[in-house]
Write a structure and sequence with these properties.
The chain has 150 residues and is mainly beta. The protein is built from 2 helices and 10 strands, in the order E-E-H-E-E-E-E-E-E-E-H-E. The longest helix is centred in the first third of the chain and has 8 residues, at 24-31.
């Protein structure tokens, strides 16, 4: 199915972004195909470029199941935000492993697995946390918690 949004031809609507300045709310609305849903957002520079990126943890029942909820990552740029990746069945807590260069890894809880490490890259983060390696104790201890159940 093709969508035309703001003059941009979208073959895969969930990957659509605009070349114009896009606020996080605008790109999130595009990502959710016009249906804003309950979510929690945290801003953190994930790729050490000096611009905050956004992690959106969906809390709406439509994006959650017994194994967890969807997490969206948006890269911050001078022009706004672009969708980088989506991960399903994510449970909190959500932490970031502070690395010296490149995309920072995330640590999340995967039901039935435990705390896992999501390797970050220019392509984003893995879709399924339960298929990722367990987070090492040193990474957990040296990580910065970004979101938790409150």
């Amino acid at each position: 199915m093709k969508h035309i949004i703001s003059g941009l031809l979208c073959i895969f609507p969930l990957a659509c972004t605009s070349s114009e300045n896009t606020t996080l709310d605008e790109v999130l609305l595009l990502q959710l195909e016009g249906n804003m849903a309950d979510h929690r957002t945290v801003l953190h520079d994930l790729n050490a470029d000096g611009i905050e990126d956004a992690i959106v943890y969906m809390t709406d029942p439509y994006y959650c199941g017994s194994a967890g909820c969807t997490m969206l990552v948006f890269q911050g740029t001078e022009e706004g935000y672009t969708h980088l990746s989506s991960s399903t069945i994510v449970q909190l807590p959500l932490s970031v492993v502070e690395t010296e260069e490149g995309w920072k890894d995330l640590i999340v809880y995967a039901k039935g697995t435990g705390l896992v490490r999501l390797k970050g890259s220019e392509q984003g983060y893995p879709l399924n946390p339960s298929m990722q390696p367990l987070a090492e104790e040193a990474a957990i201890i040296n990580s910065l918690e970004l979101l938790n159940y409150e």
